[in-house]
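agent> fetching stored inputs for the nicotinamide-adenine-dinucleotide docking request
agent> found them:
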Amino acid sequence: MSSFTDSVVVVTGAGSGIGRTTALEFADRGANVVVADVDSGGGRDTVEAIGDAGGEASFVETDVTDPAAVQEMVDVAVAEYGRLDCAFNNAGIGSEQIPVSEYPAEQWEHIIDVNLLGVFNCMKAELARMKQQDTSDAIVNNSSVLGKVGFEKSSAYTAAKHGVLGLTKSAALENGEAGVRINSVCPAFIDTPLLEKGNVVNDPETLEELKGLHAMNRLGTPAEVAQAVVWLCSDEASFITGEALGVEGGYLSR
Ligand SMILES: NC(=O)c1ccc[n+]([C@@H]2O[C@H](COP(=O)([O-])OP(=O)(O)OC[C@H]3O[C@@H](n4cnc5c(N)ncnc54)[C@H](O)[C@@H]3O)[C@@H](O)[C@H]2O)c1
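agent> prediction call returned; pasting tokens
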């Protein structure tokens, strides 16, 4: 198990689901964690859970669509802990199921703003800081299997998640020589509150159908994604950059 003792890690969307579990995993391995979320209740609960487990974390209320708030998030990491080693740009929202021909443009833009522009805002501020440091750093962006294939009635979400993969690869090319590795994770359906918020799972029948889309016939867990993120940030992944790592139980095997 790789150690992150004294590393400084920012996790966005760390007030719930995959982000919270990943923040706890980094803290468990010794990292100082900056918990960023637009939901201050959820974010503070994560900080408390990390403290209860003997770890170190700070909360910064952050809306990733706001570049000034994102800059503040990076500034807090540096002010509190001296530098920024790793970032998991994970904050995101699900989308309602609406066909392209009926999708309200404002709603479409909002999904893109949070899920794609939000990742850009975070990487911009994080990279500006990391490039001032003489260390090996790592960023992981949370895309989705829906960054690799389409999904009916989810055009905004799939477009944003495909965009995250392009953004990741371009940034990986720009920053590899400077020692910053940048990768994505592409989870399939993971058991978090997002599935309900996005109206993906409304009843037991839909849940069973969703499980059946995976070769393993189940949803993934936030911990399974967290392990992949932590590994991509670790020295064990020292020659991996620009990658889009599936955490998807065989979703894309058919
Ligand atoms: N759950 C899945 O099946 C699944 C699959 C693939 C990818 N993902 C991606 O994983 C990421 C995390 O999702 P989750 O399933 O843990 O969902 P979640 O709803 O449990 O957590 C998402 C968190 O992001 C925060 N957030 C939302 N908008 C924000 C904003 N503008 N600024 C800052 N924080 C914001 C929320 O407050 C919440 O705490 C998302 O990017 C999602 O698209 C999820």
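agent> quick read of the result: The mean pLDDT is 97.
agent> awaiting further instructions
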